[in-house]
Design a protein that fits this description.
Layout: E1 5-6, E2 21-22, H1 30-43, H2 50-53, E3 100-102, E4 109-115, E5 127-128, E6 131-132, H3 136-149, E7 155-160, E8 172-181, E9 187-195, E10 203-210, E11 230-235, H4 251-257, E12 269-281, E13 288-297, E14 300-306, E15 312-325, E16 343-350, E17 363-366, E18 378-379, H5 382-390, E19 397-401, H6 411-431, E20 439-445, H7 459-474, E21 479-484, H8 493-505, E22 509-513, E23 516-524, E24 542-546, H9 551-564, E25 568-573, H10 582-591, E26 595-600, H11 606-614, E27 622-627, H12 642-663, E28 670-676, H13 678-681, H14 687-705, E29 711-715, H15 729-737, H16 745-756, E30 762-765, H17 770-774, H18 784-787, H19 801-804, H20 807-815, H21 819-838, H22 852-855, H23 859-873, H24 881-884, H25 888-899, H26 906-923, H27 929-947, H28 960-969, H29 972-983
Parallel strand pairs: 1-2, 17-18, 17-19, 19-20, 20-21, 21-22, 24-25, 24-27, 25-26, 27-28, 28-29, 29-30
Antiparallel strand pairs: 3-4, 4-8, 5-6, 7-10, 7-12, 8-9, 9-10, 11-13, 12-15, 13-14, 14-15, 16-23, 16-30, 22-23
Helix pairs in contact: 3-4, 6-7, 6-12, 7-14, 11-12, 12-14, 21-23, 21-25, 26-29, 27-28
Length: 988
């Protein structure tokens, strides 16, 4: 039973059974109640004889009314614009290549277009090893079409170089160039593709040459019913026949005529019809053909296609099968399976001349040993600094010389204490809006390695850097991070001068080494970089993988066995082999002959880990460690607690340190740590995860400095999900908008291989979309080099008001508008940023009165909106902006008050001052007669001045004339100040 209908005088039983429908309700009209019950059953799938219901009622069917709301398609639709050649000739109308551009002065032609599974759904039917591939028949058809336009209709030769793999989502850019002569005079053809990103590299997929002169033998080509070979009849699917006339020969029809070769899954290659010779198209628009295939040898054959009349449609002298490696059919989304542009490293570069501060910097120092109220320029906590600011003490920046307390339990325990201290401090600092104009400068020592081989001597401070990097992303322009060499004294004038110049530059992070200021920048690792010594995975030793049955751990294990020949794996997991997904993994690994053990143990438990390592047999000693374990517990800083911090540090940092301690005396070939880009770049809501991963990066540098193998890979977002499987589409859209796309499986495994062979201690593995970076209003400093145009510097120019004050231009625009126009301008600004945060395309449809919470905002998107509006307006906005002003309209009113305060009416201001004066007189009435007389005389003088009457005589020897002259000469501001100073003074 799936539905219940209660027939009775009321819904008595329906209230007890979830989902039951009452046919009658007490106090309600029976007919409408019964119809509502029947309609409810209908929506649940219960058949209702509606025709019977309306018999003999006169009811008739009518067209539905138009849609009640404005209809707007989510997907963009192409606009039908008349296409032409570059020289103005009519467009070709080719469904794949589109319109060409002819090259002036040469018989050459260039096609540029986009291709996707959505634009050409038939491509999804040609799949190799799970990936959709542009078939060889399509390459041939494109080549023939391009040759027709340059007067070379016959294709002499076409060779497939790399399969063109189509992404599951999105487009690829396609480029076909035809007609360029080579050294022999033949006119060649080249076909390229790249991901749909302006800065992505091009890959050549096919190269060919046209026949410039038709050989005499070609004239004898004809269909012979008595010739040998296999024949078959082929028909284009009905759904594709309408497009047949737009192609020379539809690729699906040509592909269906080709013979196939069996694929051996263990061979590592796929046989593909890759080389074509002597291709001629004799007729176009075919929807059905007879095909003759004549075997030449084991790997080649000739092909003829004829129409219903027996006339040739296509003839191919020879097609040769060639084995293509499996890896080339598993390209990542975006078209690059190697990840050659996705491997980055953090480069600490000497800063150029830093700008001089406009005025001497007023420094204060956070010193927990300072007295409660502060002494000199030293204050015990942020509240004391805020109190000093409120009392009028000038403070531009607050220096925090960071010192990690020693902990006998080791760096892991010290890290927990240090990150808790840093969390408490930064939460207090950011929560006090009085401190918003003041920059907090945290100075560590030995927290980062600025060059290969440099030691990270304070791993706890490295974790603090990660936490504070996330704090910087949640609250831009509030915190600056600086690392110094061990023993640097921050109280010296040269160091303070460099810090002041750094603040003036706006750089959020830096390192001081001797007399040099170093700035961190992410740069690409060239694919041609000489590799370091590769780990010897295939040596009979045991490879330990923590989190080995998790998503990334399992993929790494499969990769080490399948591609590197690792023969013994020890997969460490807290749940052991009880989980349902573990057995299929073990079956896959053991099917290849690998010896695999799954052990239930927590790597963060030092004693448990020591027992696991001790149990490894001596004949198969531990030779490599891959630490992939980790958990997420995201929260913005105001909601982050010590427990949530510890929960993330435990499986990452604690486990990594125990692995280091217990294996540092073993001759390991590899010690690989799976870190995260969050530890390098920071990320809102991930301060705990950033701290844990920054610890891993620091540990890798520490091991390298002591001659031990180590590679920390700061991964971006993997498509596989794993601990990020909970991310919504809006989250993924936000990452893409920031310039980061997910890492596909094959790309990630290729990056793993490159990273472990690179030779650097710490690397960043994430695809970065430069176009998306450049589109941001504010590019993070760490990504500035990636976003900069290659090979050229930016010309220096005089700073404008908008450069020095981002709010200047907006404020100037608002000043010329009425209040209504100001609201409209600011509402457009707010709607635009709201739409960007929520990945909406209908900014104009965002209702001004609708609550942000109803629009889909959470704490993370609220911070994103605050930061975006802060960048656009140049105004420091509170962290609680969206919660204090919960609708776009309320936010507009707040911004207008900050950006365009209304000029007060001087008359209204004077009356307000009189109101205030009256309140002061009532609160502090003069007691002595002489005081009362003095106040009265001055008030009479003011009143006489306003009414134009003769002033009365003054009191206490003061003449009325003197008072009158003073009032006559005073400005409005001086008069108001006089009232404040004289009448507002407390009495004795």
């Amino acid at each position: 039973v799936t539905s219940h209908l209660e027939i009775g005088p009321d819904g008595i039983l329906s209230a007890l059974a979830e989902g039951a429908v009452p046919a009658l309700r007490r106090g309600r009209e029976e007919t409408s109640t019964l119809l509502a019950a029947v309609a409810t059953l209908h929506t649940r799938g219960v058949p209702v004889a509606w025709q019977t219901l309306y018999e003999n009622t006169g009811a008739r069917r009518v067209p539905l009314p138009t849609y009640a709301f404005q209809r707007r398609r989510y997907w963009l639709e192409p606009r039908p614009v008349p296409e032409t050649f570059g020289n103005g000739a009519p467009a070709t109308g080719h469904p794949v290549l589109g319109s060409p551009v002819t090259v002036a002065g040469f018989n050459q032609i260039l096609f540029t277009s986009r291709l996707s599974l959505k634009s050409h759904p038939w491509l999804a039917d040609h799949v190799v090893l799970g990936s959709a591939i542009l078939p060889a028949s399509a390459l041939v058809e494109l080549a023939i079409h391009a040759g027709d336009l340059i007067g070379h209709p016959a294709l002499d030769e076409l060779n497939l170089q790399v399969p063109l793999v189509l992404p599951e989502e999105g487009n690829i850019q396609l480029q076909v160039r035809a007609g360029t002569p080579d050294d022999t005079g033949r006119h060649c053809l080249c076909l390229y593709s790249r991901p749909d990103d302006f800065d992505a590299p091009w890959t050549m997929h096919a190269e060919g040459w046209y026949l410039t002169e038709e050989p005499e033998a070609a004239a004898s080509l004809a269909w012979d019913e008595n010739a040998g070979g296999r024949t078959t009849e082929i028909r284009l699917p009905e759904g594709l026949q309408s497009d047949a006339g737009r192609y020379g020969l539809h690729p699906v029809l040509l592909q269906a005529a080709l013979p196939t070769r069996p694929v051996d899954p263990d061979a590592g290659t796929v046989p593909v019809p890759a080389d074509w010779y002597g291709v001629r198209l004799h007729a176009t628009g075919a929807t059905a053909v007879k095909a003759r295939i004549t075997e030449i040898d084991d790997d080649s054959f000739s092909l003829q296609l004829a129409d219903a009349a027996g006339d040739l449609v296509v003839s191919v002298e020879s097609i040769v099968f060639r084995d293509i490696p499996n890896e080339q059919f598993r390209a990542a989304v975006g078209g690059d399976s190697t990840g050659r542009d996705s491997l980055l490293h953090l480069d600490w570069t000497p800063a150029g001349p830093l700008p001089a501060p406009p005025a001497p910097t007023a420094w204060a120092v956070l010193d927990p040993d300072a007295p409660d109220g502060g002494a000199g320029n030293r204050y015990p906590d942020p509240a004391a600094v805020a109190g000093a600011l409120a009392s009028g003490t000038p403070i531009d920046a607050v220096l925090l010389p960071w010192t990690t307390p020693q902990d006998a339990a080791g760096p892991a325990a010290a890290t927990r204490t240090a990150t808790r201290t840093a969390l408490a401090l930064v939460r207090t600092w950011l929560a006090d809006e009085r401190l918003a104009p003041v920059r907090l400068v945290v100075v560590t020592s030995g927290a980062v390695a600025t060059a290969e081989g440099e030691d990270v001597t304070d791993l706890a401070a490295a974790a603090v850097w990660g936490l504070l990097r996330s704090a910087q992303s949640e609250a831009p322009d509030r915190i600056t991070l600086v690392d110094t060499a061990t023993g640097t004294d921050t109280d010296t004038a040269p160091v303070r001068d460099r810090l002041a110049a750094l603040l003036a530059s706006g750089e959020p992070q830096a390192a001081l080494r001797e007399d040099t200021v170093l700035l961190p920048r992410l740069r690409r690792v060239p694919a041609t970089t000489p590799a370091g010594p590769k780990p010897a995975w295939k040596n009979g030793g045991t490879v330990l993988v923590t989190g080995g049955t998790g998503t990334l751990g399992a993929e790494t294990a499969r990769h080490l066995v399948a591609e590197h020949g690792a023969s013994r794996l020890l997969l460490l997991t807290r749940t052991g082999d009880r989980a349902a997904h573990v057995q299929p993994l073990l079956d896959d690994l053991r099917a290849t002959g690998a010896h695999v053990t799954v052990t239930a143990a927590d790597a963060a438990d030092r004693e448990a880990l020591a027992r696991v390592l001790a149990a490894i047999p001596a004949e198969h000693p531990l030779t490599a460690v891959v630490h992939t374990a980790g958990v997420l517990d995201n929260a913005l800083l105001p909601d982050l607690t010590d427990d949530r911090l510890d929960a993330v540090l435990h499986p990452k940092a604690d486990a990594a340190w125990h692995l280091h301690e217990l294996t540092r005396d073993l001759p390991l070939d590899a010690f690989v740590l799976f870190s995260s880009t969050v530890g390098v770049l920071g990320g809102p809501g991930q301060a705990n995860y950033a701290a844990a991963n920054a610890f891993l990066d620091g540990l890798a540098a520490h091991r390298r400095a002591h001659g031990l193998p180590a590679t920390s890979i700061a991964w971006g977002l993997w498509q596989l999900g794993g601990i990020n499987a909970h991310l919504s589409e809006a989250d993924l859209n936000r990452f893409a908008r920031d310039g980061f796309r997910p890492i596909a499986r094959v790309e990630g495994l290729s990056l793993f291989d490159r990273s472990t062979a690179d030779g650097r201690a710490a690397l960043v593995a994430t695809p970065v979309g430069v176009s998306a970076l450049r589109a941001q209003a504010r590019v993070p400093a760490l990504l500035a080099e990636l976003a900069a145009p290659p090979g050229r510097r930016v010309a220096a120019s005089a700073p404008t008001a908008a450069d020095t004050d981002p709010a200047g231009e907006l404020t100037a625009r608002l000043a010329d508008l009425s209040e209504v126009e100001q609201d409209q301008l600011l509402l457009t600004l707010v709607r635009t940023e709201v739409a960007a945060v929520l990945a909406r395309t209908d900014a104009e449809n965002i209702a001004p009165g609708r609550a942000f919470q109803d629009l889909g905002f959470d704490s993370l998107t609220a911070v994103d909106l605050r930061n975006r509006l802060g960048t656009t307006t140049g105004v420091k906005l509170p962290a609680t902006l969206v919660f204090d002003h919960p609708t776009p309209a309320a936010l507009v009113a707040y911004l207008r008050e900050r950006l365009a305060p209304q000029t007060p009416d001087p008359h209204r201001a004077l009356l307000d001052e009189l109101d205030a004066m009256e309140r002061r007189l009532a609160a502090a009435a003069p007691g002595a007669d002489e005081d009362r007389t003095a106040v009265s005389a001055r008030l009479r003088a003011l009143l006489a001045r306003v009414e134009g009457a003769p002033e009365p005589a003054g009191a206490a020897g003061e003449s009325v004339a003197d008072a009158s002259e003073a009032i006559e000469a005073a400005s409005v501001d001086e008069l108001l100040s006089f009232i404040d100073n004289e009448l507002g003074r407390p009495t004795a």
